[in-house]
Design goal:
The protein is mostly helical. The protein has one domain. Helix content is 75%, strand content 0%.
Length: 107
């Protein structure tokens, strides 16, 4: 596996783990808020910040996965288009078949 692909996968996993951790914090915060009789403004602000962080983290992870998928598709397309059976791609483009014309010489 390529080093950059492995690094990207680790990065996506890190983003998803962060999202999971933030989700647990939000869940704990929501349950502790619901058990108390008064909902303070600061706990609502905290919940809102956690929700924004979770959404941001998930968007980053999805963007990285999409980017990795696009790179994979591009690589697969290049591999399939670069397979030539009659020599190198350069020779096929630079040396077209020459049609021999019938040339008659008169003396």
């Amino acid at each position: 596996m390529e080093e950059s692909t492995k690094c990207e996968q680790v990065s996506v996993i890190d983003e998803l783990l962060l999202g999971k951790e933030l989700t647990k914090k939000l869940c704990d915060q929501l349950f502790s808020s619901s058990s108390s009789s008064s909902s303070s403004s600061s706990s609502c602000d905290t919940n809102e910040v956690l929700i924004e962080k979770i959404i941001s983290t998930m968007e980053k992870a999805l963007a990285k996965v999409n980017c990795m998928a696009n790179v994979g598709e591009s690589k697969a397309m290049m591999d399939s288009h670069c397979s030539f059976t009659n020599g190198s791609p350069k020779s096929e483009v630079m040396e077209p078949e020459v049609e021999h014309k019938h040339v008659s010489k008169k003396r």
